[in-house]
Amino acid sequence: RPVTDREQPGFRRRQVLGGLGAAAATLAAGAAAERAEAAPNWDVFTDVLVVGSGAAGVCAALEARRAGAQVLLVESLSQFGGSSAMSGGVVYAGGGTALQRSLRIDDSVEEMYNFLSQAGGPHPPLEKIQLYCEESSAHFGWLVEQGIPYGERMTLDKGLPMGDESLYFSGTELAWPARELARPAPRGHVPGVPGMNGGRSLMQALFAQLDASGVEKQARVVGERLIVWGDGRVAGLRVNADGESRRIRARRGIVLACGGFIHNPDMLRRYAPHLFDCSVPWGNAGDQGAGINMGIAAGGAALRMHEGFAIAPIYPPENTISGILVNAAGQRFIAEDAYHGVLGHAIAFHQQGSAWLVTDQASSFGFQQDNFPIVGRANTIGDLALQLPLPKGALQHTVAYYNRHADNREDPLFHKSPDYVRPLSGPPYVAYDLSVDQAFTPVHTFGGLHTSVDGQVLNSFGEAIPGLFAAGRTTAGLPTAPYIASGLSVGDCTFFGRRAGRTAAVEGKA
Predict the structure, then answer these.
(1) For each successive 10 residues of the chain (510 residues), what is the average pLDDT?
(2) How far apart are CA 130 and CA 470, in angstroms?
């Protein structure tokens, strides 16, 4: 019998069990939208369809449901959680959050805005940054209400807390030039759980709320094509479910929250070549660019597709920051106390992917580590230089200049914090290879669909595509290159995911 618009959501046949092989091929295809001049034979009906189950998708589904919409969430893989579940779970928040106030941290919306708008790359998304800063404190309160466990403890150590601390300096706030652009404040809010389990803890809390809300979710459902009416409005989505093609009708709207494209080598080579040779594609296996491709095929514009993060985690331990980073010319090119996303960006995007960390006895790792291979060891800087592919005498000149000013705890070139400035003196001198194809260099993409602050997908004229919304790394959101602070991505996913879901539910009803 024909299925009407009044059918309840959910597949009428057996539960979705397979299709992963077809999923990989489909996700990489990036094919065109399906035009529907007449009403297709719909298999599934819902008010709001959310595609993707990371933080952006789950928050979009929650807010759409709480706005009164019937919601179906689909995930291409067999496991829910997306890249968010793999992350540290950090949310960058400030302006006087409840946690900041409880720990007597002085912060303001203005200082947070100054940092996010000035410390990164050129022409950041100022409208999104301003809104995020203004509502950051309230958004953190919403996260607390969802049951995410935050403890009233902070740490001044650099790097993601491995204990139960929930507040830390998660970015480059204390490094130059950021510390002169905005008053530094710790804004990295992370679930207070031991180890790198913050992302798992955050997503467990969000999924508990999702299940209690009545949102239906289905795994192993792969989006193939957006279905678009003749007037340009997005009507639904064609999917592969259980090896069969199905059509899902979304009466109010579709939210694309399918992640980025770090695991799609063709897209990576085409759009973000600086990231292609990096050693560790970091993200969920579903980050194939499907949502971006479907959105572009429906007329959506894409922004900053070349951007992403590249991480060079030279700390912890912090003593390694007293070493120096040199490029292929044997010269320093950055302050070593910068956030590791800023360090990695400088290497991948501005140093042709090559760099070396040079340490002495006091700044060496001092333990067996496998992030960066040792490529030189000697009792003098001159002998060390002979083991590296550097111009003759260049490293010796660089170290001599650095040491002369380090005697006074000064760094005239890059203004490294005096806490980490001291001469390199005392063998053995060791060189670690930080080249992006040799070292542990996690990378992820930031480019994606152009969206409004309410999650509407915009076309190349800046006009909203009716019925189509997006959030998370399917969009070009808060995170830009260089990545200046951990938590901007998950913060963007949760905050703008909420707005996309709510807008889809409310505007689609009108």
Answers:
(1) 41 36 38 68 96 98 98 96 94 98 98 98 97 98 98 94 94 96 98 92 97 96 95 96 93 98 97 96 95 97 97 94 98 97 97 98 90 96 97 98 97 97 96 96 97 98 98 97 97 98 89
(2) 19
Integer Cα distance of 508 and 510 in angstroms: 6
Contact criterion met (CB below 8 Å) for 282 and 341: no
Rounded Cα distance, 439 and 432, in Å: 9
Do the strands 71-74 and 44-51 form a parallel or antiparallel pair, or are they unpaired?
parallel
**Global confidence as pTM:** 0.92
Give the whole-angstrom CA distance, residue 410 versus residue 407.
7
Share in percent of the chain as helix, strand, coil (round to 5)? 30, 20, 50
Q: In the 8-state DSSP scheme, what is residue 321?
A: G
| Helix ranges, 346-454 (H) | 381-386, 394-406
Tokens of 274: 């600086």
**Residues facing residue 171 across a β-bridge:** 485
Q: What is the DSSP string of 260-284?
A: --TT-HHHHHHH-HHHHT-SEE-S-
Cα dihedral sign, 217-497-90-261: positive
Per the CB < 8 A criterion, the answer to whether 121 and 480 are in contact is yes
Strand ranges for 270-320 from DSSP E: 280-281, 302-303, 308-310
CA distance 205 to 27: 28
Residue 93, token pair as written in the block:
């928040």
* DSSP summary character for residue 348: I
CA atoms within 13 A on the CB side of 503: 22
Beta bridge mates, 95: none
Task: For residues 268 and 340, give the distance between their C-alpha atoms in angstroms, rounded to a whole number.
Answer: 22
Task: Locate 325 and state its tokens.
Answer: 């980073």
322, 327, 313: which is closest to 398 by C-alpha? 327
- Residues 6 or more apart in contact with residue 413 via CB below 8 angstroms: 332
| Cα 502 to Cα 491: distance, rounded to the nearest angstrom | 17
53: which 2 tokens?
């189950």
Q: What angle do CA 217, 220, 224 make, to 5 degrees?
A: 100
Distance CA 323, CA 359 (A): 5
The upper half-sphere exposure of residue 334, i.e. CA atoms within 13 Å in the direction of its Cβ, equals: 26
Q: Count Cβ atoms below 10 Å from residue 426 Cβ, excluding itself.
A: 12
Helix and strand totals (H; E) in the chain: 14, 21
Q: Which residues pair with 470 in a beta bridge?
A: 256
- Tell me: cis bond preceding 316? Omega within 30 of 0 counts: yes
State the Cα–Cα distance between residues 244 and 220, nearest whole angstrom.
Answer: 12
